[in-house]
Amino acid sequence: MxxxxxxxxxxxxxxxxxxxxxxxxxxxLDPVIPVLHSWIQDxxxxxxxxxxxxxxxxxxxxxxxxxxxxxxxxxxQTDGVLGLRYNRKSPLQGTNLHRLTQAARAAIIAAQxxxxxxxxxxxxxxxGQDIQLIVNDRLLAPNDxxxxxxxxxxxxxxxxxLFGHFGHSLSFDTDPRHLLSATIHASKPFSTGDxxxxxxx
Length: 201
Prior knowledge:
By secondary structure, the chain is an alpha+beta fold. The chain contains 5 helices and 8 strands, in the order αβαββββαβαββα. It has helices spanning 4-9, 32-42, 96-116, 145-163, 192-200; strands spanning 16-22, 49-55, 63-68, 71-76, 83-88, 126-135, 168-172, 180-186. Helix 3 crosses helix 4 (145-163) and helix 3 packs antiparallel against helix 5. The protein is globular, with a radius of gyration of 17 Å.
């Protein structure tokens, strides 16, 4: 049980983003556009999907975005590495572990759909080892030492849940100009199916 002091200083993580890195950062994203439009038509996720926006002309930008009501999905290139990024916009009840798990599950399910879509001929695949966690709220979670110290225990618990007893590391981006973010690097590759099983356990 947390002490009164811990309850007062705990940071409630909202607007959680999760990015899964892909193996092929130079993949042609043109074939992905009709896939994203088909997701709007089929509505395969829990969130309402609304539109597709193409920002590939922006250097190290958000790439292709699938805009939703509760959350956005994007083929993201903001750090120069292509990946699937899930951006939760609506607040969620529950614990930080619950919110991290929800965002990770949504990102992994979307990545799994891209990997399996025959229209893409397996051109997009999760690298199996690197997952970036971002809090898209500078007011709630400024990227400073005190915030990183406060959130690290929750992020470590989440990393342990995701990768179990296999070795993994957690590193923070300490540039105060950037959003609060941390990258989990696993010692071995995991499939999207493996990670979903870990989250559902």
